[in-house]
Amino acid sequence: MEYKHFEDFLYRLKLPLEHPDKISERSWFQTRKEIEDKEFDLKAVNNNAPDFSDKRTTKQLFEIIEESQKEIQKKLAELMK
Q1: Neighbours of 38 (CB within 10 A)
Q2: DSSP line for 11-45
Q3: Is residue 67 over pLDDT 80?
Q4: d(C-alpha 33, C-alpha 40), whole Å
Q5: Helix (H, G, I), strand (E, B) or coil at 64
Q6: Considering 23, 46, 61, 63, which has the largest number of Cβ atoms within 10 A of its Cβ?
Q7: Does pTM surpass 0.85?
């Protein structure tokens, strides 16, 4: 890693806790109390990061698969003619 990779971190590190730029999509902080309340679990979980996870349910995914299979069967039938 190079020094330039730490520029954002070093900038935010110098800011006071109440500064609006202290928290970003890639940075956050926790108080000692928050850490103690989580029994000193120090996992790096950034609650500010955007959540890009797939929110579809299993039922929705099966419906998509079924519709795709119907479309495939229809196209195969057309090709067979």
Answers
A1: 12
A2: HHHHS-TT-GGG-BTTB----HHHHHHTTT-----
A3: yes
A4: 10
A5: helix
A6: 23
A7: no
